[in-house]
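Predicting holo structure, zinc ion bound.
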Amino acid sequence: MIRKITSFAAVVALSISSHAALAAGSGNAPAAAAETEAPPPILFTNVNVFDGFGPELIEGANVLVEGNVITQVSTETIEAEGAFVIDASGKTMTPGLIDMHQHVMLNPPEGTATYQTRWDEASGGAIAIHHMNQNMLMKGITTVRDIAGDPLDIAKAIDMGLVPGPRVYSAGGAIGQTGGHSDFAERNIPVDRLRNDQDVSQASQNTWVVDGVDEVTRAARMNLRRGAAFLKVMGGGGVASEFDPLEILGLAEDEVARAVEIAADNGTYVAVHAYHDDSYDRHLRLGTRSFEHGFLISEDMVKRMVKKYEETEDIVWSFQCYMSINSFGSYDTMPAFFSHEQKLKGVRVGEGARNVAKWMNEHGMFVVGGSDMFSPGLVERIKEDLTCNVAAGFSPAQALKHWTGNAGIVLTWSGPKNPYQTYNLGQIAPDSYADILIWDGNPLEDIELILDESKLQLVMKDGRAYKNTMVTSDSIMYRPAVSEPKVYP
Ligand SMILES: [Zn+2]
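Done. C-alpha cells:
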C-alpha cells in the first residue's frame, strides 16, 4: 500500500527506519548522522518513461528514487514505505540530457580560446559556471562531456556542492600540433613562447600545442594527472582556428599512436576532431574511439565505420547537428566573431553535414549528440541540437537516445578515469543515477516541446531537484545530494 504524503515532516518521521538501512550501506557516515540527514525516497507514479533507448515509452510506470539512485522502475505497484509520492500522470520522464561535445571554458563573448587575451581566468571561470547552471543544468542538461578546455576544478567544486552545475567529463586541454586546431596563439609568436606558459591558451590549460611523441606523452599524462576522463586530439583542420585548412592532417601517425597508447594504459580512450576521410582513416587504424564532426567524409567511410562498430562496438560518431547544419548552414548564420576564411570553411561543413547525417542514419551507425554550442547566442539554445537531429532525419526517440542512453554507454569508456562509475548514466532503470527530467507532454510526439522551458517541470540530478514546478510542496528542492564520497588531490 503506497501512502501519499503531503507533509515533509511526516515523511521524515515515517521513513527513518527504511532509509537508515539505506544509509548504512553507503559506509560514509555514522549511522546516527545518516538517520537525520538521509532524505526520504521519492516515488513517481503513473509516469510515461523514455528509458534512454526506447523507441517506445513505458506507459504508466512507477519509478522509485532512493538517495541518488533509481532503484525500481515498474508498471506494477511499488511498495515504498515512507516515500514522498509524486503523481506524474500524463507526464513523460526522460533521463537527464548529456551534451557529449561542449566547451564550457570557451563561453566569453569572443567564443574561441582567443578570448583569453581579453578575459582573465577568473572571469572565464565565472562565466562558465553561470552558463553551466543557467543554460545547462536548469534546462535539463545534467551531464556534459567537455572536449577541449579545462573545467577540472570547476567540476570538483560542483561535485563538492560549492556551486551548482552538471556532471562534467573533461578531456582537459585538447592536444594538437603547431598550426593545428589547438593553436590559438598570435601569428608571430616565437617558437619558445608557443612551447611554454607565455601562450595564454596553453597557460590556462585549455589547449596544448605539441610536436613529437615526447610532447604528446607529456600533455596526455598531465591531463590525466589532473583528472581528465579521456583525451581529445586534433586530427585535422578546423573551422574556428586560423592556420589550418580543413584538408590538412593534424597529429602524425606516431603521435596519434602514442596518445592512443597512453589512453589505453589508463583504461580510457581518445576522441578526435576530424572532418575528412584521410584523418578518419588514420584514427580508425590507430585505435581512436570517439569520432567528432566528420562532415566531409564519404559514404564509403560511413560504411567502414558502421562495419567496425558492428564488429567491435567500440567506436562512436559524435554528431554536432545544429552547429554543422544550422549555424554553418550559410555564410550569414555563422558566428559573428568568425573571419571571412573561417566562414568559408563553415559553409563547406554545412553542405557536407546533411549528407553524412543521412548516411549515418541509413547505415545504422552508433551515434551520440554533442552540441558544440558555446558562447553567447548559442549556449542558450543547446537543446536545438536535438530538434536539429529530427530535422536531419532521425526520429525523436533516436535524437533522445543520442543524448541519453547512447551517451551513457560512451561515458563508461573512461573506465577507471570515469568520475561517476558507481551507477549508469543516461538511463531510467534500476542502478542508474537519479538524473531525471519530467516533461509536461510527450517529446516523442512533439520534439519541439523540449524547447519550451515551461514544459520542463522537474530537473533532478543525483537525487536532488534543481527545478520543480510539479508539486506545490518544495520539500524535494532541498534534499541533500547523496553522492558517493570522492577524494580529490
Ligand atoms: Zn568542439
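The first strand starts at residue 42 and ends at 49.
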